[in-house]
Amino acid sequence: MMTANGPSHPGDADGEGRDDDRLAQGMSALDDERPEDAERMAAELLKADPHHGAALYVLGCALTMQGRAGEAIAPLEAASGDHDNPECDTVLAIALRQVGRHEDAVGRLKLTIKRYPAHAAAFNELGYLLVVMGRYDEAADVLTQGLQIAPALPQLSIQLGYAELSRRNCANAKVAFARALDISPHSHDALFGMAKAHQELGENEAAVDYFRRYLTDRPNDSGAWLNLGHGLLELGQLEPGYECFRMAARGNAERYGTALTSLTAAA
Hints:
Helix 7 (120-132) runs antiparallel to helix 8 (136-149). This protein is 78% helix and 1% strand. The protein contains 15 helices and two strands. It is mostly helical and 267 residues long. Strand 1 (2-3) and strand 2 form a beta hairpin. The model is unreliable at 1-13 (pLDDT under 50).
């Protein structure tokens, strides 16, 4: 513990230093997507102080990243209750969504946005959640508000694009995905979304181009191969189109059935 005259006890200062190091290591592990290491660091801190707010937050994040949202909720609620932390509230909402408590997550995110109107991540998560719930108009409104705060955050434009696709407003979806690609030209989600928007409008040449760009980095996405195949068939490129269906079916009996069904449904 620090006082106006320096450390009251050398041992306390050393202990605080070690705690700060563990906390920094835990945060770094989260940034590097090493949630198991982050969980271990947080657990060490919580042995000494079960109410350590930052450690509870790190633990909750680590558990959520590992798909253990049910375990993450309690530490995140404890961390959120003790500290004003919009990041913690947003991760808590993600955990609530992952366990199916969608309305609780919506309420948490709306409160977070009201208290921290500049926290763009809460807008992004709320928009995504509303799309999941089929509330596309609300999602578009929330994401548009978020873009006014953080226009350079590509995730907001991507989420808005998918909200617009879901309500079949493909022209607006193209605008949103184009904005995201201006910021992040290699975004897989934006490339796939742009391809789907063009395809829905019958703009198959552009759709084929975006599907090909997407598949350059995601060659195992069978659904994208099927979409590319349909686009090529629409353009009269039969053999390249059939090859895409073969690529979609390769090495998997279930994929073969899906590809065959999709092919027989093609005009």
